[in-house]
Amino acid sequence: MTESRRRAFVAANWKMHGTRRMVLDYASDWPETTPQVDIVLCPPWGYLGHVRSVFDGKDIRFGVQHTEIEPHGAFTGEHAAEMARDLGAEFAIVGHSERRRLFGETDEVVAGKFAAALRAGLTPILCVGETLDERRQGAAETVVATQLDAIIDQCGASMLTDCVIAYEPVWAIGTGETATPAEAQEMHAAIRAKLVRQGVAQAEGVRIVYGGSVKVANAPELFAEPDIDGALVGGASLDAVEFAEICCAAA
Ligand code: PGA
Known about the structure:
By secondary structure, the protein is of the alpha/beta class. Helix content is 38%, strand content 14%. The protein has ten helices and eight strands. It has helices at 20-29, 48-54, 81-86, 97-102, 107-119, 132-136, 140-155, 181-197, 219-223, 240-250, and strands spanning 9-13, 38-42, 61-64, 91-94, 123-128, 164-167, 208-211, 230-233. An eight-stranded parallel beta barrel has the order 1-2-3-4-5-6-7-8, surrounded by five helices. Helix 5 (107-119) crosses helix 7 (140-155) and helix 7 (140-155) packs parallel to helix 8 (181-197). The longest helix has 17 residues, at 181-197. The chain binds 2-phosphoglycolic acid. Residues 13, 168, 173-174, 211-214, 232-236 line the site of 2-phosphoglycolic acid. 2-phosphoglycolic acid binds at residues 13, 168, 173-174, 211-214, 232-236.
């Protein structure tokens, strides 16, 4: 399969932002014609139902930003992947660097959440990426390979066929710093080569998207790279017009 047969994928990670009013304004700013790419909105959990009903009838799908591993139980304050599915989500962000760094999610925990998402019928959006120190030490590819190995060890390589991988260099998230298109392409190609080496079925068809300070201004040159199949957008996804333009750039 050639890269031209991978449908572009653009997801909005609203992080811990939003109000009911913001959702209504977002929907009224959204263009009449939705761009022809897979578009996923990942609002905070509490707004999922509201966002779904406000966007009803639009060609947009929904995801959550994190889930717990267990399907139910005494885990005060937590949400299961099964609950996300029950609420109409189709995707779950897994292993975002903020979850790894601020909430202590290890590679093993991330693999558990990846498995939980699949079990519940959600498509994981698996985030991988290196810190600035790791990049300076020349370890970027090794770090990302280790993050992927944790999934392969716990879930099996075949499970990577059914996910979207988001390469998000930690130093580019929310900083205004973006990897150059060439730097990002190099890592995306390395990730795809690893999927092929691991015998992942249809490795050429797995979408690998870029995340880290994606904006209208830098999206077209990133999307022009052959292995960059879209984006996971944080800050810029809070503005409906800008996010829709990024989606258009991916189309
Ligand atoms: P950013 O966030 O676009 O604000 O850098 C991306 C992300 O964290 O997924």
